[in-house]
Amino acid sequence: MNATIFVTDDEPAIRSALVKRLSRRQHRVAAFESGEALLQALDHEVPDLMLLDVKMPGISGLDVARAASGRCHVAFVTAYDQHAVAAFEQGAVDYVMKPVTAARLYTACNRIKQRLETAPANLELLLKTLSEHRANVRPYLRWINASKGSEVQILTTDEICYFQSDTKYTRAVTQSSEALLRKSLKELGDELDPTVFWQIHRSTIVNLNAIGSVSHDGYGHVILRLKQRKETLRVSETYAHLFRQM
After folding, report:
1. Which pTM was predicted?
2. How many Cβ atoms sit within 10 Å of the Cβ of residue 150?
């Protein structure tokens, strides 16, 4: 069965990958960059399925799902932990964990096809559970103290292009400078927003918003070029699958 699917995610690369892969399966796909835009579209057409990013600025995927509960099928794109994923499973909706991989999206497409033959689920209980979970989740790291010479700088995580291990310290690299912080890369990985910061090497975490392009070198390695820095970053084989959808 070919379906009409509305997709929304505030990350252009993820949104584009979802549209491309769903379109290959002969579905009619419309993409929206915000929850607000999708809600406006729902006033004119109700799709067979909505694939929603849970966490978006303004109107979230949960807000959109609440408005469409019982009207169409819903699947979520999420960076939630396994406790929240259990709620998705109990709520009879599908989910795709971030970072999105081709294999996981393929599985989701097959599940979506099966569910299109049934009536859309009522999502009220699921949404209540997820809202309570969000209220109890520790907020992600938004700013850091880093040393530059004898000064201590306060940097927002939005300013950081990438973090890189450097002996006893971690380098925080911004558009125009570098600073050191006394926090391991592993500690940072646990505190940073996983929808924005991806580990690409055992010694490097990159801000997805800082990436200008993704390419391959002569040996097949994934290479990241940054928008505002001259150096490139190499992705280790362990993390190369994260960029296959781009």
Report:
1. 0.54
2. 5
Contact, 14 vs 100, CB < 8 A? Answer: yes
The C-alpha torsion from 114 through 76 and 162 to 237, rounded to 10°, is -20
My answer on whether 122 and 169 are in the same domain is: no
Q: How far apart are CA 192 and CA 196, in angstroms?
A: 8
Express each pLDDT in 151-207 by its tens digit: 788 888 999 999 999 877 899 999 999 999 988 898 898 889 888 899 999 999 999
Among the three residues 135, 166, 200, which one is the final residue of a domain in this structure?
135
Q: Are residues 20 and 127 in the same domain?
A: yes
Q: In this structure, are residues 193 and 53 in contact, taking their beta carbons and an 8 Å threshold?
A: no
Q: Point out the domain boundary residue: 74, 101, 135.
A: 135
Q: Measuring CA to CA, which residue among 81, 53, 60 is closest to residue 138?
A: 81
Expressed as residue numbers, the domain containing 218 is: 143-243
pLDDT tens-digit map of 86-104? 556 555 467 777 767 777 7
- CATH code, domain with 186: 2.40.50.1020
Q: How far is CA 24 from CA 36, 41, 79, 103, 177, in A?
A: 27, 23, 25, 14, 43
